[in-house]
Design a protein that fits this description.
heterodimer, A: Alpha-Beta Plaits, 2 domains, elongated, B: six-stranded mixed beta sheet, four-stranded antiparallel beta sheet, 7 helices
């Protein structure tokens, strides 16, 4: 048993070297397949990260009138905070709002001068509300509208709720990203299928050239496993080498691409690659090995009949 | 040791007859030549002995075993009892002469020490001691056939089956191969060979079975090539 295993292993390695040309072709095709899978992985990561970032930026701001009574502001804030769908409520006081405004316009002397002309702080307090899910903003917004309607007209508290204004652009952007993600998944699935089929056929062709050998081995009385083993080992080696090659090629590409994706999508793909290297290694090399092994096993099986 | 019992083989949905009602017996240590035109059914007979082809009717026995009742999983083991030699040599192209012969022993589960002892012996028997590390494409036709014979005998099979072993060889190589097959037979191994070379039959001067149109038409105790 151990002797047989050792012989199969040796035959696998020797066959790999003596058929170097065929081995290289198989590895190259497998490399392209794995590269496509890797690109799909990274593109998907980019899109889902930007969707997350975008969603975390979505919030509802409630601007209170400058002379709104503090207890009313607190009451509304507490009521909103008590809603089950709300994750955070950030309160900004009038003074903080003014400080923020000054900071934001520190280069704009005209605005600052205009501010100086006023006796009083013209800004009201505001709260920023973040919901747990984007879809729940609708509900939070409706709650706030009800609060606004309940107010007595002579003592206004809420000046403006900006949900309706942001809603349209946020919805549009989300729709675009989701559609892009879907489209990219479809494109990647098609590419992936093509890559797998090409790999499968290349390895099948490689083994087709060995069909005569397989029939000779059978005639000499070699058992199925003894014939199949070396080919299976070679399939695994193709996958392993192609997988490592793919990861190695991604390295310089991502070094170059990383800062650029950071500017555009707020995620540095290179950092992502380094941090998640373990998972990426398992996925890419794993798929390569499984693809190589399955292709060669199926291919040899055809010639082992009779 | 080999017994054909009323064997017929039809190809192509029973339209073309390869072998028809063939009955004969081969005793241990015999050297049997099967002669006949192309398409007379010689190769089909040999294929049925190694269970590569199934008879449509009748049975083929190896010793007392019905060859075509051997389960598929046991076939490799059965085939190891038979050494095969073919017209087109059927060597593994990516293996050296030594590795080709060793492969038959490896497949048989022999130990490394047996392999390193027996392979050079087998290659010496066919006069190829000096070419054991050459690949098949570096060998002449006669040398390739001698490697194939070394591979066929290395597991000490009970019987050697040779399908037109001299078909691709020049007269000198043919002579050498025939001498080797005779030597193997003299050492006690049964040989069944097909050929259509009259010179070979005369040289061997042993039992000849003549086939025509799938039937056995003659079975002579000593070499006669009549067609």
């Amino acid at each position: 048993m151990i002797t047989a295993l050792r012989r199969i292993t040796k035959a696998g390695f020797v066959g790999f070297w003596r058929n170097a040309y065929v081995s290289m072709a198989s590895i190259f095709v497998l490399f392209i397949a794995l590269f496509v899978i890797g690109v799909a992985l990274f593109v998907n990561q980019l899109l889902s990260t930007s969707l997350d970032t975008l969603q975390s930026k979505v919030d509802i701001n409630v601007y209170f009138v400058p002379d709104a009574p503090q207890e009313e502001i607190d009451r509304i804030s507490d009521a909103v905070r008590a809603l089950p769908d709300v994750s955070t409520v950030t309160y900004t006081s009038r003074e903080d709002a003014l400080a923020e405004y000054r900071e934001r316009n520190k280069d704009d002397t005209i605005s600052l001068q205009a501010l100086e002309e006023l006796d009083d702080n013209p800004l009201g307090a505001n709260i920023a509300i973040q919901a747990k899910e984007t879809s729940q903003y609708e509900y939070v917004a409706r709650f706030l509208d009800e609060q606004q309607e309940l107010e007595q007209p002579q003592v206004p508290v809420i000046d403006e709720i900006n949900y309706a204004r942001n809603k349209k652009s946020i919805d549009n952007l989300t729709a675009i990203i989701v559609a892009t993600q879907k489209a990219s998944l479809i494109v990647m699935a098609v590419l992936l299928l093509a890559a797998i089929l090409i790999t499968f056929n290349t390895i099948r062709l490689a083994i087709y050239t060995a069909r005569e050998e397989i029939s000779i081995m059978r005639l000499v009385g070699a058992g199925n496993m003894f014939i199949r083993g070396p080919f299976m080992l070679q399939g695994i080696m193709y996958g392993l080498i192609a997988g490592i090659l793919t990861l190695a090629v991604f390295y310089p590409i991502l070094v170059w691409l990383g800062p650029r994706t950071e500017a555009l999508f707020e995620i540095n793909l290179f950092n992502y690659y380094i941090v998640h290297f373990g998972e990426i290694f398992i996925v890419i090399v794993g798929i390569g090995v499984v693809l190589g092994l399955l292709s060669s096993t199926f291919a040899v099986a055809r010639y082992l009949k009779v | 040791m080999i017994y054909f019992d009323n064997v017929s083989k039809l190809y192509n949905d029973r339209n073309s007859i390869a072998v028809q009602e063939v009955t004969f017996q081969v005793e241990p240590k015999e050297f049997v030549s099967i002669v006949g035109h192309s398409g007379a059914g010689k190769t089909t007979l040999l294929k049925m002995i190694i269970a590569e082809d199934k008879p449509t009717n009748g049975q083929v026995f190896f010793e007392s075993v019905d060859v075509h009742r051997i389960p598929k999983s046991r076939l490799p083991k059965y085939r190891r009892k038979i050494g095969t030699v073919f017209q087109d040599f059927k060597l593994l192209p990516h293996k050296t002469a030594y590795e080709n012969v060793a492969f038959a022993m490896e497949a048989n589960g022999r130990s490394d020490s047996e392999i390193s002892e027996n392979v050079p012996q087998a290659l010496a028997l066919v006069d190829l001691e000096d070419k054991i590390w050459n690949f098949p494409h570096e060998l002449s036709g006669g040398e390739k056939q001698r490697v194939a014979i070394a591979r066929a005998i290395v597991n000490q099979p009970d019987i050697i089956i040779a399908d037109e072993p001299t078909g691709n060889l020049d007269p000198i190589a043919t002579y050498e191969v025939v001498q080797i097959l005779r030597k193997i037979n003299d050492l006690g191994t049964t040989v069944i060979m097909t050929t259509h070379n009259k010179g070979v039959i005369d040289e061997i001067d042993r039992r000849v079975i003549t086939m025509d149109g799938g039937r056995v038409v003659r079975d002579d105790e000593t070499g006669k090539y009549v067609l």
